[in-house]
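User: I'm curious whether this sequence folds into something compact or stays loose and floppy. Could you predict its structure so I can see for myself?
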Amino acid sequence: MSLNAIKVVSEVNRSPDETFDAFMSDASHWWPLDTHSVSPYLGEPAPDTVVIERYEGGQIFEISKTGENRIWGIIIDYEEGRRVAFRWYPGLSEAEATTVSVEFEATDDGKTVVTLIHDGWEARGDQAAEIRKNYVEGWAEIIDGRFRNFINAN
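Assistant: Here's the prediction. I'll summarize afterward.
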């Protein structure tokens, strides 16, 4: 059974370049590291830092309190100011990766529409439907909540 992609759309009060830059460079400020990172699941304190490398083949990773890089994903498509896509597998093997794409589109009034699509649920096997269900709420909270609030306040 194929599961539908998750789609989250949010409008923010900044240009696509500013919005893209905040998404890529300021994730440590808007990502909920205390609840949505690998370290706490390993019984460790939440990290302070998440890094998104700005090139195709780059990694997305948290830096644990002990200095260990814990990979969340790999950038598979990168267009500065416009789009980033990545294979997503925080705390998992790359064989279990799903695909996330985020696009940044200008509106006529100088704002930006951010569209996140998360697909490829088949990689998560028998638990895909339950995992997807958790991501529906999670991505809405992160993109249309935390990220939108961060970018609109800065």
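Summary: Strands lie at 6-12, 49-52, 59-63, 69-79, 83-88, 98-106, 112-119. Residues 131 and 142 are 16 Å apart (CA to CA).
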